[in-house]
Amino acid sequence: MNAATLDLTGAQLIPxxxxxxxxxxxxxxxxxxxxxxxxxxxxxxxxxxxxSEFMSMEHSRAAMLRLIPRxxxxxxxxxxxxILTLVADTTPGIHDTLIAACDIHRYRQLGVVGHHDNxxxxxASALEAVGVSAxxxxxxxxxxxxxxxxxxxxxxxxxxxxxxGQYVTLRAEMDLIIVFSACPQDMVPVNDMKxxxxxxxxA
Length: 203
Description:
Layout: E1 12-14, E2 19-24, E3 29-34, E4 41-47, E5 50-54, H1 57-64, E6 74-76, E7 82-89, H2 104-109, H3 119-129, E8 141-143, E9 166-172, E10 176-182, E11 198-202
Antiparallel strand pairs: 1-11, 2-10, 3-9, 3-11, 4-5, 4-8, 4-10, 6-7, 7-9
C-alpha cells in the first residue's frame, strides 16, 4: 500500500494546533497520515492501565541503537518494555526523537506574549478527554519532524520532507493510550511555518 492507495475511510482528525488521544488494544495498528504534508505530529504512548509507564525516547534509542526509528524497530517504555513497533513508513524516513514538546516557556523564549497553543497542553487536554492524566510530559516521538544532526553534533530545525498523503503505521505491543498533537509551532520552520490538520486510521 502506498500513499496514493491508502484508504482513509473512517479516518479521524487531528486538528491543526490541537491534540487527540485514543485507546489501542495490543496488536491493533494506527496509521498517521501527513494529510497536507510538512506537518509535525508529536506522538506519545502510555500503558493503558498505568500512565506512569510511557514510551520513552531515551530508552528507545538505547534499544534501537539509532536516533530515528526504521520499519521493524520497536519503541520501548521507561520500564524497557515494548510499546509500539513501526511497521510501515512511506515518508523519506525523517522523524525526530530528540526535541521536547513545545510549551508556554518555549513560546515565551521566542517572544510570544500571552497564550500560544502548544503540544504540552494538547497532551494534557487530550488525556483529560479520555479520563486519565499523566504526572509528566515525556519527550515525544516527533513524527515527520526534520532535525538534522551535523557531524559536529549540532542540531537544526528544518521543514519536514514528508509530502501530502505520506504516512507511518505503528502497531501496539500492549494495551495503550496513544496521543497525537498536530504541532502548532509557527515561529521556527518545523511545520514549514503553517500548522495544518493530520489524520489517523485504526485497524
